[in-house]
Amino acid sequence: MNKATFLFFLSLVVFVVSSCADQASNAEKTKVGDTKVDTNRLYKVVVSYPKTDSTRFDMEYYEKNHMPMMARILGDNLHYYEIDNGDIETTNRPVYVAACSFYVGDMKLFTDSVSAHADSVGKDIPKYTNEKPVIQTFTTKRFDKW
To answer: Cβ distance 47 to 96 under 8 Å?
Structure first.
């Protein structure tokens, strides 16, 4: 792994841990459907890929190789993931070519899992894009329509 990739993943781990450190202590229960869901125990990690004039993004590789690899790395902590394709015909210029959202129950386990496989993940990124991902973490509250 080159120094830039290592530093990127190290900064990812520090960002994710620091942004979620206080979340577990603020847990609240919200009725969703017929079950109680601990809404502050589900975290959403969004990884977005900026779209520029020189962006290269191989969605097929991303869907069939990279994301299944990430699902294996995250294991049972991963509730589910989503892939968003922003490379569509539209009248406005998309900011991102693609994004994914990982929904996980434990942020420490997420960061530990990604850190343990940082070399594999870092080596895989150039296989589908030439862009540096933008990462943001959220706590989520789910509301079913009534």
So the answer is: no
DSSP character at residue 95: S
Domain of residue 125 covers 3-139
Q: Which of 6-10, 76-80, 85-89, 142-146 has the lowest mean pLDDT?
A: 6-10
List, edge to edge, every strand of the sheet that includes 78-85: 78-85, 96-104, 43-50, 134-139
pLDDT tens, position by position, 72-103: 999 999 999 999 999 877 767 889 999 999 99
Distance CA 137, CA 146 (A): 27
Tell me how far CA of residue 145 lies from CA of 10, 32, 33, 35, 103, in angstroms.
39, 9, 9, 14, 20
Whether residue 65 lies inside any domain: the answer is yes
Letter for the amino acid at 9? F
The strand pair at 43-50 and 134-139 is best described as antiparallel
Please indicate, yes or no, if residue 28 is contained in any of the structural domains: yes
> How many domains are contained in the chain?
1
- Short-list 76, 135, 83, CA closest to 109: 76
